Amino acid sequence: MIEVQNITKSFDDKQILKGISTIFSPGIINMVIGTSGSGKTVFMKCLVGLFQPDTGSILYNGIDFTRISIKEKKQIRTQIGMLFQGSALFDSMTVEENVLFPLDMFTNMTAKEKMNRVNFCLERVNLVGANKKYPGEISGGMMKRVGIARSIVLNPRYLFCDEPNSGLDPQTSLLIDQLIKEITAEYQMTTIMNTHDMNSVIGVGGKIIFLHKGNKEWEGTNKEILTSDNQILNDFIFASEFLKEIRRGATNPK
What we know:
By secondary structure, the chain is of the alpha/beta class. Helix content is 39%, strand content 24%. It has a six-stranded mixed beta sheet with strand order 6-7-8-3-9-10. Strands 2-1-4-5 form a four-stranded antiparallel beta sheet, with helices on one face. Helix 6 runs parallel beside helix 7 (198-204).
């Protein structure tokens, strides 16, 4: 669990985050949505420690991440997995080597133990037999699955996903969403996802917070979001006719 308590963040004289508080629970996909410039990226960077909030606290299972030593922060970071927007794979490394990289960096496992873990994670994301391929030889969806395998190879308690469906076709996006949802539930990770993809929000969003101009404008579930009376949220979500039809069906069931 990650608990956020009234965090603020400013750059020069511009306040980006304005007293945000929320709780992210394990076992579900916690989503952060909002327009460009709403504060989503700064919020996530504060959560993982790339930015230090000006005020407030971020608690990882009760430990205040904003007030512990660098050594203690490193310990928590070993429990964090990151899935980047562009997968961020090393082009000069094979699939196997990309997934192996965190184990080489952060563990004292034997070579056999590392390979067993790599193969387990590749099997979990349905990439058996892809070990020796390079990123340039596989599809965008496969690259994303390699990124997921690498993000879970250290068996993290916390998983951060930054626009995981960016650049993917709708069908592949659904597969990636379901894979993240399954892994999150299976390992009871606290997963936090930044996304603009409303199909992901409606499909797998367990808890959603909506940021608007640095404020937490709304929070709830993917069921509640369809019937919210928050006009700012509705203007953001129901911009397309397709989603407007979904809302009509949710608010006027037959």
